Structures
1.
Amino acid sequence: MIITVSFFILILISVITLVGIVLLSAYYLIARIRSKEKLKMLISLKKTAVFFAMAIILNVGLIILSQFIASTPPIVDENGNTPQNSIAELRKLELNGREQWISLRGWDKNAPVLLFLAGGPGGTQMAAVRHELAELEKHFVVVNWDQPGSGKSYYAEKVKNITAQTYIQDGYALTEYLKERFAQEKIYLVGESWGSALGIFLIDKYPEAYYAFIGTGQMVDFAETERIDYAKALEIAQSKGDTALIKQLTANGEPPYYGKDVTWKSAVYLNYLNTHMADNPEIHNPGYNTLRDIYSSEYDLLDKINFFRGIINTFNHVYQQLYTIDLRTDYTKLNVPVYFFLGRHDVNAPPHLVEEYMQVLDAPVKKIVWFEHSGHNPWINESVKFVREILSCLSEDKIQE
């Protein structure tokens, strides 16, 4: 926190100093043209330039320092002791030639491995999962992966080159790394929102690598979801007489959107729906704690900036590639047990699409678990129940094996 505050103070100082340099330079040139006394002005200009250079150097130093001290906190029990066989690592890997970051956390490094697939595309939930689902670490080695174009892995690949296949390829490479490192035959997958679709892609292509999959905030048909979300936001706005939002939605038109403004146009109705869910008294613990997450120790100064760049830039580029995907027609047979953890009040990823998907899905096990006090994020809204249901479902899966 101190480093972050110092960084932004230095940024402010640098900007002010740069403005001073520009103004002093202009005055100096005018003085030269008019053949006026300019020695004092030149000295002031040099001093200001030196001050600017020092601020820049200090900021670069803070960036480097923040990269060295970024870490995930150790596992501690109720007495403040670290379990002997625990693991708490922040690690950089090369997956298919792309440098990416993961966190690994668990009370026992010999426990089963559970890979959490964040939403987005472009989102990072490395810190959020640690805060919200710490109880899972008692039962699994919980792995969080900053996917290409997000958070700590923002520079893994140029955003313009990222496709759904990029995530599938790197997700599988990460899976193989985890299986080898922890001597596991298979691992478990949990995916939320965009990550729920990525999880389906992975178990479809590599069923031999996974014990089971849990999807929450499950995406089914991306284009239809956007149209439903848009219509829902318009309906709510009309019921509230929110003329400003109605005007903006009407101006943008019905999705799906393409081009450079996908993020901003989608944000109009998505943010409105998120606010609607946050205001719903039936939804517990309704929203993300963004400030807590972004200031968490896993993220260095550049990561904090890339936290938002991923949400804006990567989402904009990748999301419009997903509009042709419909799990109801493209992924109807899966050879891995599948569980859908759905918020009863989710107006972001419509649950009825998941119910339709269940009707056509052929899988060894398929089950919907309802969360009565959740919206789009049961893992946040009802985290205690979320962990309990994971343990219950995966225990059933073990029995059936």
Note: The mean pLDDT is 91.
2.
Amino acid sequence: MKFAIRVIKNQFHPLKVSPNANIKHGQYVLVRTDKGEEVFKVFLVNCQIQKTWEKFQPEPYSVVRIMNEEDMKTYEEQKELEIKAFYKCRDLAQKRNLVMKFTQARYTFDRKKITFYYTAPERVDFRELLKDLTQEFKRVRIDLRHIGVRDETSILQGQGVCGQDYCCCRFLKKFEQVNTKLARDQGIPMSSGKITGACSRLLCCLNYEYKNYLDAAKILPPVGSGVMTPDGVGKVFMVNFLKKSVNVKLEDGKVKEYQKNEIEMIDGEVNIDIDINNNLNYQEDEVGAADIKALEDDKNSTTGNV
């Protein structure tokens, strides 16, 4: 059997476990990482992940020991200290008028180092804040880490509109570029509430099925094209990619849905007016085009500094 731990931001690492160690799934162990000695929950790894590890070789971490009752009591105290440290650091930053949004504070188990994670729209000169923190947390190494808003969401965790845990908390390790064209091509209403996640950036999942929509678009007539239907000539009003059908506005003003095999594209202009603004797939809510465009600005949304 092989075991692993999940470090911050959904990074899984195998554990170096001695043959006589009695480690079980769900236990807490003290592990030596590049930040120091930290506490993590153990996961039993299946054979598929083991094969992936053989290919990519993530860095294994050494187990210092299995947490006992006394260790767990110390760990609970540490969690309380982290909360207090979080608010103290935030207050000190506010006194210095620094534009920093703090996400989390994490101690190493020996409490010799504390890391503060924060987001900021621009580079922050925190030298004076660091002096304040050094005075507040004596004999403790201070680490201030600037992260992106996508990194922040993956650290804090939560559930998306799909009802499942955020992708960045489960399997997504690398953030791909996302733009509003992905939403438009998939017929998703241009509403910030429908195309953004908890990080206030465009949904990462807009990338997942995009190729399927492109494949469907190749066989379906685009919006505005003239078609011959069983009910006469019409103009395509809306494309339903998943159903592989189109909504067509006919000469009498009615709008009907047809499957691909029920229509045939025709050459020439069809004299039927369609109002795309009344098409739910193209409507925008109270958020203006400029604001929607701003969502595409992924600068500093992820830093890899976690």
Note: The radius of gyration is 27 Å.
3.
Amino acid sequence: MTKIFETTFDILYLITVITLGLKMSLDAKNTTQYRLFGYMAIVLGVGDAFHLVPRIYAMWTTGMESNASILGFGQFVTSITMTIFYIMLYHIWRMNHKISGQKQLTFFIYLLAVLRIALCFAPQNQWFSLNSPLIWSIYRNIPFTVLGCIILILYYQQSKKSKNKELRFMWLAIVFSFAFYIPVVLFSNIFPPIGMLMIPKTCAYVWIVWMGYHQKKTL
């Protein structure tokens, strides 16, 4: 029953975000911000597919251990694409609120992203092992978490000033995504059922995409 639920959920999630991403990209016309939202959704969906599709395959065939390499590679790709996702979300914030300048902030955002990606490439992650070292999972998620916290603060601050109702809860969706993600990083190796928190975490990302999809009428 668990396999059926997880498989159905993952497939619906991938179809939803990629479809919405393609629709936003095609419907954007000259609206750069809406197009970027579409690209962001596609990056999210395609990146997660590298992890979720092998996971579905493993669940219904020979199991996780027999497919450790492809699952690890999928996690590696997803780690990179999620970093790109937040960079794009940062630029959407700049466009939406007509932010100019702030070169130091942009530099720091990109520095965190580069550090995160560099840590993902470190061989110590042992991506192709079923149980990669916890300490390296923590290392690579420190700059990623800081990046996410900065972006949620930026959205929160602007939600108090902006009249744009479509994105006013963007900060909250980011809070939820990290609140469900961090326990999985820290405790899933000790208590595997906690991995189910990835489901509400995924719902938070669908919410982010959904907010972007409904923003067209305000642009």
Note: Residues 2-218 form a domain with the Rhopdopsin 7-helix transmembrane proteins fold (CATH 1.20.1070.10).
4.
Amino acid sequence: MTDDPRLVRSLEARYYTDHRIFEAERETLLAGTWQFGCHLSDLAEVGAYVTFEIAGESLFAIRGRDEKIRVFYNVCQHRAHQLVSGSGNTRVVVCPYHAWTYELTGQLRAGPNLKALEGFDRSSVCLTEVRSEAFLGFLFVNLDPDAAPMDEWFPGARAELEDWVPNWDRLKPLEWVEISENCNWKVSVENYSECYHCSINHPTFSTGVVRPETYDIQPQGYCLRHTTECQNLDAMTYDINSGFAHSHEYSSWFLWPMTSFQVYPGNVLNTYHWRAAAPDRVVVWRGWYTVDGTDDETIRRLAVQDRATTVEEDIHLVESVQRGLNSRGYRPGPLVIDPRSGVNSEHSVMHLQRWMREAVDG
């Protein structure tokens, strides 16, 4: 007897363990989707720059004298030395190898003894620019120059977040924490994108914030939109009466493939940014924000509580899953797809796995 063909089975283990699939993802999926680069507050001044890595490529963002932010591949056009590291501020970009010098626009300005090159036109050399977009104070990049704009990828997400986070243009990171998880990035993303496990594994989140029986996740383009009703919030440990709409609600937006925005009661913004480090390791940046980056003991307590409960609980789950994926005894089971959706359905994982498979297999 065989299973009903209508059953949707989870991805085979090789999608999470095979280094060849990981490399294929870097070349296709991660290089052709919108990825978080940095927060715009890091680029407030002319000449400010920040380096980051996307799909195995070193990139840097820099603010020009025209106030425009540009993103470039971090490589000199002379003999390929990397140009900058970390973050800082500079009047021009100077290659450490042979001192070829670039304007903040990426245009070659000068280099030692270039006058000796008869017929050489400096204006023909420019750093290779990368597609970028500002999104609610965050800079996103896409290595595909022909990629559709973010608003086409994630319809409605920008306007919804503007409504839920009304002072986003003044927000700055109060706290960034980078936490490594010993699992494939897709394991971590899938775990984030379903609440089938919440009541069993997240008692603080399930009893203190959301009503898990009302939790639902639906696709909105390439955004997975998390919605839920909240528990009775009278006993919240902080004042949630912000005076803005949605102050008594929680909601989340997952932007495929590696970014999420969570808004907690009181219009408190928390973000996750995944970075795929290896087939079996992902680094998750977790950020909390306040107006002008002002120190706020309430937000710091929330961050500590979140890491000690939901985050720590999830790390144990995803690392156990990765160990299980390496077992020769694993046979992919069916996803629980409830036609009515809801918290006990894995329809959101079904969408994720379809996007994952399409990116690698075509």
Note: DSSP finds nine helices and 17 strands in the chain.
